[in-house]
Amino acid sequence: MSDKVVFKESVRGLIEYILKSGSLDDRFLSRGRALEGTVAHGKLQKSNAEIYKEYEKEVKLNYEFQREDVILQVEGRADGIIKDNGNVIIEEIKSTYKNLIYIDEDFNELHWAQGKVYAYIYCKLNSMTKIYIRLSYYNINTDEVRSFEKKFQIKELEEYTYEIIYKYLDDIILKNNLKIIRNKSIENLSFPFESYRKGQRELAINCYNSIKQNGVLFVQAPTGIGKTISTIFPAVKSIGEGRGEKIIYLTAKTITRSVAEEGFIKLLNNGLKFKVVTITAKEKMCLNSEVKCNPDDCIYARDYFTKINDVIKKLIARENIFTRTKVIEYAKEFNLCPFELSLDLTEWCDSVICDYNYAFDPRVRLRRIFEDHNSENILLVDEAHNLVDRARNMYSCEILKSKVMDASKILKGKVPNLYKIVNLINKEMINIRRELEEVNENVIYKNIIYKDLIKLLRMFINEAEEYLIKSKGTSGYENILEFYYDTRNFIALSELYSKEYTTILKNSRNEFSIKIFCIDPSKNLSKIVNSAYSTVIFSATLSPIKYYVDLLGGEENSFRVRFNSPFNKENLQIYIKDLDMRYGSRDKNIIEVCKNINRFVQEKQGNYIVFLPSFDYLNKVYKEYVRIYGDENILLQEENLSEEKKEEFLSNFKIGANKIGFSVVGGMFSEGVDLPGERLIGAVVVGVGFPRISVENNIIAEYFEQNGFDYSYTYPGMNKVFQSVGRVIRTETDKGRVLLIDNRYLNNKYKRMLPQEWNIKLYK
User: Fold this and answer.
1) What are all long-range contacts of 36-44, with beta carbons under 8 Å and residues at least 24 apart?
2) Dist. CA 137–CA 92, nearest whole Å
3) What is the rounded average pLDDT for all residues in the chain?
4) pLDDT tens per residue across span 416-462
5) Closest C-alpha among 251, 220, 253 to residue 561
């Protein structure tokens, strides 16, 4: 038995995988169906228990099927088993909103299929030759039931079941053969470069040992070490040794996903047999002018489920790596939705490259990867310094009173019950707003859930679903749908509420909002981070490392390692200008800032980027600089730049162009930008990068007590500074210079935070 390969699958999963057909359709259907289905099952099961003397509900059934060296363990729960007058009846219960008049016994093949597999397993386990299957449809709105019953012989059930099992096993055997080929290729796989860079081998070894111990590893590794390949390579080696089944490469930016793809391509060119897919957001993948994923509006949604299994096997035979471009190419060839195609490819791929939100955001998390099989995943979390703020946003949400009022106007005179509930929500928000009026404040916050509001929001959800199903295309429909999803998110996050949260009430002239704010996302992140086979969290700027361990789901026993830059420290000269750049002194020092910028860039000709603390200050400094020195070769970053405008800005930084780009610390040009060699020879960073003062940041400072100011302002700010400085030196041959304008860099607190390898001088 030891040489057999064992797989497990549920009856439902088996049936849906083999028999599911039809089209994609993202038009509104009840999102509460699972819960409602459970309630419907319970009602009918209770009724059956009263009618029949011998009745069992939720009966667990298991059976093993074998083909070649593969064993498939199929398991599930039959909704009900009835024994009546010597007959055994397997009952499948299906809940629906559809009028039962329109449901006949051939309504859905998958429903009978589930019953047949359960019936076959029950017959085999109980040595029976015949059995009945009852399919019962329960209307959630009316509590009416319509049932269909058929008698089956075991031979008939056996033929039907094995036809499905063998189709499923064909794919299982194919996957297993691919795994054997994969593991064989990993045995002989070598590092894809002739030699390791300084620190690179040590990083790879740390990753390998951490995975070997099912650990969580935090890594600060500056630009130049080669973090991507140094984490991917040991993860691949671990997979080949049976440690984990899938590598999930998580990142915040498109450019980093491309770097990860390049890392896998290097290994594939070195003999690795490994399937890799990149997931890109649906909006960026959609082949239509508007995202409408249904068979009426999109040819790529039409018959998707009917075609997908055959197409996937063709693609797996053709390719090893499925980039965004490649997925779109095949989507067009086979008329399939590219986003859904990329998701279905994850079932066959050994690695998935995707954004953080697909792992951590409860609203869009890929459950097939991160809930059903996360214990098999090796997580590689790149650019992890970005994850703190991203996570806070993932686990926070708000309700706006203006949206409640919009919903009220739309529903008035059209949907009385729903209109009444929306007005009750509005009244409750007015009651809550009075808390602000009583203390004469525009903002207050406290650790409290407004249960009466949540109760009303739940009432809205229940009542809105019928409207949203029946009223597509009517005036204001999209507004109600948007408010419905806001409400669902608010309710869902309220269920995560704990001491790590607060509720912010904010009032302005035209708006009132109630915000559930996640102060500390570590508990939520840790559920994914610590339930994976192993997790490696890394960045060029993960300092101080304790801050990130605390906030990204680490624990006391998490591994930590820090590497110095592999580049010659003489290649980067850091200058500090002793000038007060605290918020209250900024404006009076604008002319002095301009003088220092100009003197610095004139000392050595080349391309520079100047990083300012905010867009407001950026515009003030830029205006004064141009007034004094003119605008020749001067570039200004505008707010909310498109990708095209961003590339246009960067294209100006050619060798010998002598451009000066005015930008923002923490903006799109302070990280993820690669201008090697003389395309960028220097940078000026004004200030210490503090995030703007806000209610949320002040709450964070208060929550973390003695570490509070550092956790909310100092560490996030300095991280932005380090990222900005990191644009200058990209390769071992680069040479550059950086001017830091702020006297706080001369304080011991900030001195201790600066990288040890920096070659620092005072700028006089």
Assistant:
1) 36/95, 36/140, 37/94, 37/95, 39/140, 40/93, 40/95, 40/138, 40/140, 41/79, 41/93, 41/95, 41/138, 43/138, 43/143, 44/80, 44/93, 44/136, 44/138, 44/145
2) 9
3) 93
4) 999 999 999 999 999 999 999 999 999 999 999 999 999 999 999 98
5) 220
